[in-house]
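Support case: flavin-adenine dinucleotide complex. Customer-provided input:
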Amino acid sequence: MTSPANTHSPLEVDYLVIGAGAMGMAFVDTLLSETDATVAIVDRYSQPGGHWTVAYPFVRLHQPSAFYGVSSKTLGTGAIDATGPNAGLHELATSDEVLDYFDRVMRDTFLASGRVHYFPMSSFDDLATAGSGSESPGTQRFRSQVTGAITEVVVRRRVVDATYQNVTVPAMVPPRYEIADGVEVVTPNALTTLSSPWARFTVVGAGKTGIDVCLWLLERGVDPDAISWITPRDAWLLDRARIQPRKPDAPQTGDGGMWMAGALQTESIDEILLGFEAIGMVMRIDPEVTPRAYRCATVTRTELESLRRIRNIVRHGKVRRIEPDSIVFDEITLPAHPDTLYIDCTADGLERRPTVPIFDGHRITLQPVIPCQQVFSAALAAHVEAAYPDDATRNTLCAPSPHPDSAQDLLGYGIEIAERTALWSGDADLLAWLHTSRSVITFPDAVDPERQARMTALVGQLREKFAGILAWDAAIV
Ligand SMILES: Cc1cc2nc3c(=O)[nH]c(=O)nc-3n(C[C@H](O)[C@H](O)[C@H](O)COP(=O)(O)OP(=O)(O)OC[C@H]3O[C@@H](n4cnc5c(N)ncnc54)[C@H](O)[C@@H]3O)c2cc1C
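Agent response - structure generated as follows:
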């Protein structure tokens, strides 16, 4: 799919966006709404949607559809699920629905605007240097993966890197452990085409993909005792019931001040996390095990109960090698049933990347500004690009926030949300924009200097008190 009239070379555009995943799409959508800019979008895949293009068929969004996608078009209908483990909560789009949605956005909004030129199946190979020239990004080149033809684009304003998050799902990478002959290791994608049964299933990886696979096996009637789950680290999980769109007439429920005040009374990260658990903010699979990870994974309490039916949870670190009759870890080798299907879920969908300034000369590098809220962050970057005059201001409003990884990052995650919210809510225009965005965060209804000062003070106290724990923050920026 390309824009019909403009495939001749050299094309001239204001922005060249590399990546038509959710972040690139959200950025372009807001840019089109708020400016008269022209855009070229280049992507390796044959359709927009990024990692959803290669995801396992039974994947769904982890958060309500209402929070996902581009600002100009709602994803889904806002329905509440009546059945299944998400019953009573806002719908979660399937990968097919996400892809259909992005296809419609591309055709009906982007290409129909006449301002977007889309180059699927095309690879941009100069990401490291694109946009680093001093005068203007100038002529940029990308290559068709089908014909090998090189297309030249003259870029007037910026090159936008919407690939920096490096989202990796199992179908993209081989397992990072050795596999002996005769051992069957598959990606979750292969599960829906299984044609013969297995005596046992071993799920390798404890992230959200591993959770999805365990739930899929249980829902298909696999005996929980036939499932082994290799979990190098237990993680704190978010309760999806608490991450739901606010009803239009619902009152504001708290602003984070309470948890921050509570956290200031504690002396250790474990104490803080147990406090979060006590108020239902986070959950864990095994109450006897203290999680050491936090990766933004979201489940319902029904799903949590299902996962707890799996008793054979293997906590011996990372797998190094799988033999037909054993699994080798660094410090132990465990026996394994020869008739086992291994499902590899070890790809890192939320790689913790070094942060770089989002706005930098002729380059924009899209990154989350609220942890784990990528589409919101990309749309905000486009709004800030359009509405603010200089990169210093833009970078202050859009400080990048790396994906959380360890349990202690949950504190940093909470602080960063409070910090950003306090900063943004001092700007009435920005606040009005935030209320139209696809955001999980609840923003105050109006500028409230008193509230802002209180939040800023609490954030400052927390940063000071837990400076050691939050050191990752400074180290990585
Ligand atoms: C299973 C799963 C479920 C998720 N659920 C949610 C959810 O419910 N809510 C939520 O907010 N987030 C969710 N996320 C987070 C998700 O990662 C982001 O929301 C978002 O989809 C990431 O989009 P992206 O554009 O950053 O990356 P990608 O989807 O990876 O898109 C990057 C694009 O860049 C292209 N590309 C890369 N390099 C090049 C190159 N050199 N030349 C040309 N093209 C290139 C790729 O082909 C790809 O299309 C989920 C993630 C996963 C893995």
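Residues 238-283+408-477 form one domain.

Case will auto-close in a few days if no follow-up is received.
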